[in-house]
Protein backbone atom coordinates (compact mmCIF):
# COMPACT_ATOMS: atom_id res chain seq x y z
CA UNK A 1 0.00 0.00 0.00
CA UNK A 2 1.29 3.44 -0.92
CA UNK A 3 1.43 5.80 2.06
CA UNK A 4 -0.37 9.05 1.54
CA UNK A 5 0.02 11.97 3.90
CA UNK A 6 -3.18 13.09 5.56
CA UNK A 7 -4.32 16.70 5.36
CA UNK A 8 -3.32 17.24 8.98
CA UNK A 9 0.18 15.87 8.36
CA UNK A 10 0.61 18.11 5.30
CA UNK A 11 -0.53 21.11 7.34
CA UNK A 12 1.87 20.27 10.15
CA UNK A 13 4.81 19.90 7.77
CA UNK A 14 3.96 23.19 6.03
CA UNK A 15 3.66 24.96 9.38
CA UNK A 16 7.06 23.65 10.48
CA UNK A 17 8.65 24.78 7.24
CA UNK A 18 7.08 28.22 7.66
CA UNK A 19 8.35 28.40 11.23
CA UNK A 20 11.90 27.65 10.08
CA UNK A 21 11.73 30.34 7.40
CA UNK A 22 10.24 32.83 9.87
CA UNK A 23 13.09 32.09 12.27
CA UNK A 24 15.63 32.61 9.50
CA UNK A 25 13.96 35.86 8.51
CA UNK A 26 13.98 37.21 12.08
CA UNK A 27 17.61 36.19 12.44
CA UNK A 28 18.59 37.97 9.22
CA UNK A 29 16.62 41.08 10.19
CA UNK A 30 18.48 41.26 13.51
CA UNK A 31 21.98 40.15 12.59
CA UNK A 32 22.24 40.09 8.82
CA UNK A 33 22.70 37.09 6.56
CA UNK A 34 25.91 36.10 8.33
CA UNK A 35 23.79 35.27 11.38
CA UNK A 36 21.63 32.80 9.45
CA UNK A 37 23.15 29.52 10.56
CA UNK A 38 21.35 26.21 10.90
CA UNK A 39 21.80 25.76 14.67
CA UNK A 40 20.55 29.18 15.86
CA UNK A 41 17.70 29.11 13.34
CA UNK A 42 16.68 25.70 14.69
CA UNK A 43 16.69 27.01 18.26
CA UNK A 44 14.56 29.99 17.29
CA UNK A 45 12.13 27.79 15.38
CA UNK A 46 12.00 25.38 18.34
CA UNK A 47 13.07 22.38 16.26
CA UNK A 48 16.16 20.20 16.09
CA UNK A 49 18.95 21.11 13.67
CA UNK A 50 18.30 17.81 11.89
CA UNK A 51 14.73 18.91 11.26
CA UNK A 52 15.97 22.06 9.52
CA UNK A 53 18.15 19.91 7.28
CA UNK A 54 15.16 17.74 6.34
CA UNK A 55 13.45 20.80 4.91
CA UNK A 56 16.55 22.61 3.69
CA UNK A 57 19.47 20.23 2.99
CA UNK A 58 22.03 23.06 3.13
CA UNK A 59 22.45 26.60 4.40
CA UNK A 60 22.53 27.78 0.79
CA UNK A 61 19.06 26.32 0.21
CA UNK A 62 17.72 27.88 3.41
CA UNK A 63 19.03 31.35 2.54
CA UNK A 64 17.94 31.03 -1.09
CA UNK A 65 14.40 30.20 -0.03
CA UNK A 66 14.47 33.05 2.49
CA UNK A 67 15.42 35.46 -0.29
CA UNK A 68 12.65 34.07 -2.49
CA UNK A 69 10.05 34.34 0.27
CA UNK A 70 10.92 37.94 1.20
CA UNK A 71 10.87 38.89 -2.47
CA UNK A 72 7.49 37.22 -3.01
CA UNK A 73 6.07 39.18 -0.10
CA UNK A 74 7.45 42.45 -1.48
CA UNK A 75 6.16 41.69 -4.97
CA UNK A 76 2.70 40.94 -3.59
CA UNK A 77 2.73 44.23 -1.66
CA UNK A 78 3.78 46.15 -4.77
CA UNK A 79 0.96 44.59 -6.80
CA UNK A 80 -1.65 45.25 -4.12
CA UNK A 81 -0.65 48.90 -3.85
CA UNK A 82 -0.46 49.44 -7.60
CA UNK A 83 -3.69 47.58 -8.37
CA UNK A 84 -5.54 49.73 -5.82
CA UNK A 85 -4.38 52.95 -7.51
CA UNK A 86 -6.87 54.89 -9.66
CA UNK A 87 -4.70 55.10 -12.78
CA UNK A 88 -1.40 54.05 -14.40
CA UNK A 89 0.64 56.99 -13.09
CA UNK A 90 -0.72 56.52 -9.58
CA UNK A 91 0.00 52.81 -9.85
CA UNK A 92 3.62 53.52 -10.75
CA UNK A 93 3.92 55.96 -7.85
CA UNK A 94 2.41 53.35 -5.54
CA UNK A 95 4.86 50.71 -6.75
CA UNK A 96 7.86 52.97 -6.20
CA UNK A 97 6.64 54.05 -2.78
CA UNK A 98 6.07 50.45 -1.74
CA UNK A 99 9.59 49.44 -2.70
CA UNK A 100 10.99 52.40 -0.78
CA UNK A 101 8.90 51.74 2.32
CA UNK A 102 9.70 48.02 2.38
CA UNK A 103 13.39 48.74 1.97
CA UNK A 104 13.46 51.31 4.77
CA UNK A 105 11.26 49.38 7.18
CA UNK A 106 13.65 46.40 7.16
CA UNK A 107 16.99 47.83 6.05
CA UNK A 108 19.24 45.10 7.43
CA UNK A 109 17.14 42.37 5.89
CA UNK A 110 16.91 44.29 2.61
CA UNK A 111 20.69 44.60 2.44
CA UNK A 112 21.02 40.91 3.20
CA UNK A 113 18.63 40.03 0.40
CA UNK A 114 20.34 42.34 -2.06
CA UNK A 115 24.07 42.22 -1.60
CA UNK A 116 25.43 41.31 1.83
CA UNK A 117 28.37 38.90 1.37
CA UNK A 118 27.55 35.35 2.44
CA UNK A 119 29.72 32.25 2.49
CA UNK A 120 27.39 30.24 0.24
CA UNK A 121 26.25 30.85 -3.32
CA UNK A 122 22.78 32.44 -3.39
CA UNK A 123 23.31 34.48 -6.55
CA UNK A 124 20.61 32.65 -8.52
CA UNK A 125 17.95 33.43 -5.92
CA UNK A 126 19.05 37.05 -5.67
CA UNK A 127 18.95 37.49 -9.43
CA UNK A 128 15.52 35.87 -9.72
CA UNK A 129 14.07 38.14 -7.04
CA UNK A 130 15.44 41.27 -8.68
CA UNK A 131 14.13 40.22 -12.08
CA UNK A 132 10.63 39.68 -10.72
CA UNK A 133 10.42 43.05 -9.00
CA UNK A 134 12.06 44.88 -11.92
CA UNK A 135 9.58 43.15 -14.23
CA UNK A 136 6.66 44.40 -12.16
CA UNK A 137 8.06 47.94 -12.20
CA UNK A 138 8.55 47.71 -15.96
CA UNK A 139 4.92 46.63 -16.38
CA UNK A 140 3.75 49.68 -14.45
CA UNK A 141 5.93 52.03 -16.49
CA UNK A 142 4.72 50.38 -19.70
CA UNK A 143 1.08 50.84 -18.67
CA UNK A 144 1.68 54.55 -18.08
CA UNK A 145 3.43 54.86 -21.44
CA UNK A 146 0.56 53.14 -23.25
CA UNK A 147 -1.92 55.43 -21.51
CA UNK A 148 -0.03 58.44 -22.84
CA UNK A 149 1.09 59.56 -19.38
CA UNK A 150 4.80 58.99 -20.07
CA UNK A 151 7.03 59.36 -23.14
CA UNK A 152 8.04 56.23 -25.06
CA UNK A 153 11.10 54.60 -23.52
CA UNK A 154 12.87 51.31 -22.86
CA UNK A 155 10.67 50.32 -19.95
CA UNK A 156 12.80 47.36 -18.87
CA UNK A 157 15.92 49.51 -18.70
CA UNK A 158 14.04 52.30 -16.92
CA UNK A 159 12.67 49.88 -14.33
CA UNK A 160 16.12 48.42 -13.67
CA UNK A 161 17.60 51.89 -13.30
CA UNK A 162 14.85 52.98 -10.89
CA UNK A 163 15.21 49.88 -8.76
CA UNK A 164 18.97 50.31 -8.61
CA UNK A 165 18.61 53.95 -7.63
CA UNK A 166 16.12 53.13 -4.87
CA UNK A 167 18.29 50.44 -3.36
CA UNK A 168 21.51 52.43 -3.60
CA UNK A 169 19.92 55.50 -2.05
CA UNK A 170 18.12 53.73 0.78
CA UNK A 171 20.19 50.72 1.77
CA UNK A 172 23.49 50.81 -0.15
CA UNK A 173 26.85 51.80 1.35
CA UNK A 174 26.17 55.48 0.63
CA UNK A 175 22.69 55.51 2.17
CA UNK A 176 22.15 57.84 5.15
CA UNK A 177 22.39 56.12 8.51
CA UNK A 178 19.62 58.09 10.23
CA UNK A 179 16.61 56.77 8.34
CA UNK A 180 15.10 54.94 11.32
CA UNK A 181 13.48 58.20 12.39
CA UNK A 182 9.86 58.22 11.09
CA UNK A 183 10.05 61.79 9.82
CA UNK A 184 13.32 61.20 7.98
CA UNK A 185 11.91 57.94 6.62
CA UNK A 186 8.85 59.73 5.26
CA UNK A 187 11.00 62.45 3.71
CA UNK A 188 13.28 59.85 2.12
CA UNK A 189 10.32 57.95 0.65
CA UNK A 190 8.92 61.17 -0.80
CA UNK A 191 12.30 62.21 -2.21
CA UNK A 192 13.07 58.94 -3.98
CA UNK A 193 9.51 58.58 -5.29
CA UNK A 194 9.62 62.10 -6.73
CA UNK A 195 13.03 61.39 -8.27
CA UNK A 196 11.79 58.15 -9.84
CA UNK A 197 8.68 59.75 -11.33
CA UNK A 198 10.65 62.63 -12.78
CA UNK A 199 13.21 60.20 -14.20
CA UNK A 200 10.65 58.35 -16.32
CA UNK A 201 9.07 61.57 -17.60
CA UNK A 202 6.31 62.64 -15.22
CA UNK A 203 6.03 66.42 -15.25
CA UNK A 204 7.17 68.01 -12.00
CA UNK A 205 3.80 69.35 -10.82
CA UNK A 206 2.11 66.05 -11.58
CA UNK A 207 4.92 64.10 -9.91
CA UNK A 208 4.59 66.16 -6.75
CA UNK A 209 0.85 65.58 -6.71
CA UNK A 210 1.34 61.82 -7.03
CA UNK A 211 3.85 61.85 -4.17
CA UNK A 212 1.40 63.70 -1.93
CA UNK A 213 -1.30 61.24 -2.93
CA UNK A 214 0.87 58.32 -1.84
CA UNK A 215 1.82 59.93 1.46
CA UNK A 216 -1.85 60.35 2.34
CA UNK A 217 -2.67 56.66 1.85
CA UNK A 218 -3.33 54.90 5.20
CA UNK A 219 -0.97 52.00 4.46
CA UNK A 220 1.91 54.32 3.59
CA UNK A 221 1.28 56.51 6.62
CA UNK A 222 1.33 53.48 8.91
CA UNK A 223 4.52 52.08 7.40
CA UNK A 224 6.47 55.31 7.68
CA UNK A 225 5.05 56.17 11.06
CA UNK A 226 3.36 59.37 9.90
Give the ordered list of helices and strands.
Answer: HHHHHHHHHHH
How many helices? The count is 11
Number of structural domains: 2
Measured distance between first and last alpha carbons:
60 Å
The biggest beta sheet reads:
none
Q: Given this structure, which CATH class of the largest domain is correct?
A: Mainly Alpha
The helix content is over 70%
Keywords: DNA-binding
DNA-binding region: 37-56
Domain HTH tetR-type: 14-74
GO molecular function: DNA-binding transcription factor activity; transcription cis-regulatory region binding
In short:
Helix content is about 75%, strand content about 0%.
How would you describe this protein?
The protein is an all-alpha fold and 226 residues long. It folds into two domains: 1-56, Orthogonal Bundle (Arc Repressor Mutant, subunit A); 58-214, Tetracycline Repressor, domain 2. Helix content is 74%, strand content 0%. It has eleven helices and no strands. It has helices at residues 7-31, 38-45, 49-55, 59-83, 88-105, 107-114, 123-146, 155-170, 182-200, 204-215, 218-223. The longest helix has 25 residues, at 7-31. The radius of gyration is 19 Å and the shape is elongated. The chain starts with 6 loop residues before the first helix and ends with a helix. The model has no long low-confidence stretch (mean pLDDT 91). Keywords: DNA-binding. Residues 14-74 form the HTH tetR-type domain. It comes from Bradyrhizobium frederickii. Pfam families: TetR_N. Residues 37-56 bind DNA.
Amino acid sequence: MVYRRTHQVVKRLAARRSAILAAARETAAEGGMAAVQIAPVAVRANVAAGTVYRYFPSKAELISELIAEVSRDELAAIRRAADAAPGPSSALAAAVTTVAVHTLSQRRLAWGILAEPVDVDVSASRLASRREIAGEMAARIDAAVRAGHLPAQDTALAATALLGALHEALVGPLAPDNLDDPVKMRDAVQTVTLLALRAVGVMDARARGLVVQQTLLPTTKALVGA
